[in-house]
Structures
1.
Amino acid sequence: MYELLKTRRSIRKFEDKVVEADKLDTILKCVLMAPSSRDRQPCEFVAVTERELLRSLSVSRTMGTEFLAGTGAAVVVLADPGKSDVWIEDASISALTIQLVAHSLGLGSCWSQIRERLTPAGRHAEDHVKEVLKIPVRFKVLCIIGLGYPVVEKPPHDEADLPLDKLHRNRY
Ligand SMILES: Cc1cc2nc3c(=O)[nH]c(=O)nc-3n(C[C@H](O)[C@H](O)[C@H](O)COP(=O)(O)O)c2cc1C
């Protein structure tokens, strides 16, 4: 786990290679095991592999979503706020779980923020994503995790650079 966390980096450039269906299935099964508050499980996921849909998702924002056009796949993280008042926390845990499982399978990933972001035309990015993927109105969209085989390997986190001053013991 230590090595996995140390070597996970956000990857935004991918090889022109599909993400195998069995790897995507593993990621999707794993995310269903993520913890959620009161075990309410408010999150749902849309796995996207169609190039045209990935292109449409990539224009959800002016910057920050563009890399999705070149991904091998993406997972859109949704939650039903009617099921939990802490759906943002639950959905965030799900998103990171997707990233860590992807990394453990040799895939790169990057989080693309949708909640609280606008399209270039000033619409809610969430509404654009919901329209493209035909997501029912009751859901909120937290983010999209882009996945694929990294073109370049990024250096791992350097232990010497860890901001140890942020750590407090017993009292602040
Ligand atoms: C809540 C959250 C939102 C993020 N939003 C975006 C985004 O919209 N677009 C993007 O390219 N990266 C996004 N990132 C990735 C961060 O930029 C990245 O994690 C950070 O720069 C640290 O780099 P690392 O992941 O390689 O350690 C986001 C990450 C988090 C946790």
Note: The domain at 2-149 is CATH 3.40.109.10 (NADH Oxidase).
2.
Amino acid sequence: MDTPICDFVREYAEKDSVRLHMPGHKGVDALGCERLDITEISGADVLYHANGIIKRSEENAAKLFGTAKTIYSCEGSSLSIRAMLYLIKLYAVSNGKAPLILSARNAHKTFVTAAAVLDIDVQWLYSKETGIVSCKPDISELENRISELSPTAVYITSPDYIGNIADIEAISEVCRRHGVILAVDNAHGAYLKFLNKPQHPIDLGADICCDSAHKTLPALTGAGYLHISKKAPEMFKTQAQNAMSLFASTSPSYLIMQSLDMTNKLISDGIFEKAEQLFLRLGELKSTLIEHGFELCGDEPAKLSVMPKSYGYTGDELSDILYENNIVCEFSDPDFCVLMFSPCTLEDDISKLESVLLTLPRRQPKLNTSPRLNRLETAIPMNKAVMLPSVEIDVSDAVGRISASATVACPPAIPIAVCGERIDSSAVECFKYYGIKSCLIVDDKFIK
Ligand SMILES: Cc1ncc(COP(=O)(O)O)c(C=O)c1O
């Protein structure tokens, strides 16, 4: 597969032109990447009016992902989530309806900020999982809620931060039957397309999704996609660039775009075929750890999520021990320690991890569990709550007050309370459990 963006920038850098354009470093090395960091000079195309090298590169990505349209983001999935919500609102309005999204409760905080600012009504889907990070909706409950609410779209976050994958195929089947859009936050799952048996949401029936290329593909931080499926409403395809440009910087990073361009080539050259052995090795490690007494969770082949309390450690303690052994995890909290792998992981690194985990002395199990969060009452609409003046208070004083921050979130940016919800004692217990000391609440003076 060709790399039109990388080729253009490399040729430009080799010409050693007098750079009387942005960026101000003028190609002079300080970090070492400046020569390749350009702006929208002649021939470089324009990200959200693409008709040259960027368009060709995005078409390569669309071919790899099997989409009708794939658009690059230089601001991660966060930008694509805002664009998805805008498109959903546009779709509702074009059908003469007010937008309503039925979303699994473990949505990333960007979803909440976007819904609040765009004034989209959100109804939440809960599930049997006790933690805040996961929410695999029950299919028959989903169907009942769709019949009751007639939402514009269902919004699912899958995989979640600890590696649980929702049944997107079954969810998409229900959505299709009811004529409801299915949007998926697939920030953690770009690589699912390139497994032996692809599990990417677009393959499983989603209309639209975001992927963070930087999370699981060999791409620079900030690299992401907005994918539109071939069966999505036509307006998603025609309005997608406009939707991204509404929220995006007007100075997108060409380093990130080159990285996305090169990722196409790495994938088409077979980086994932070569990684099969690595994923098998990781699967073996998971089995060994379970035999050894570790409790694991999640369905993702490229993630290892340890729940070490039953082995005598909190997630944070395990993360610290790994760190002392020069192994740095993605995420930890009291309950989980999450490690992420990709085709760029070395098999040796898996062996190092294995030897640290298998030599860790087993201790008395930690019996305390994470507090259970009640379903919080919506006191005022999200949009109203973020648009009213707020005050910061100690969480101990927050019971009964209305949350004003888009989200008060546990560490992976998943809402405990969203704007407009009345904080109760279960929420306060969760804030404390995750080390949150203060929160923004709507200033009472402004509530009518
Ligand atoms: C589930 C989920 N969605 C969206 C995002 C935002 O992605 P990005 O950092 O690429 O903007 C994250 C970030 O961690 C995430 O975990």
Note: The domain at 271-358 is CATH 3.90.1150.150 (Aspartate Aminotransferase, domain 1).
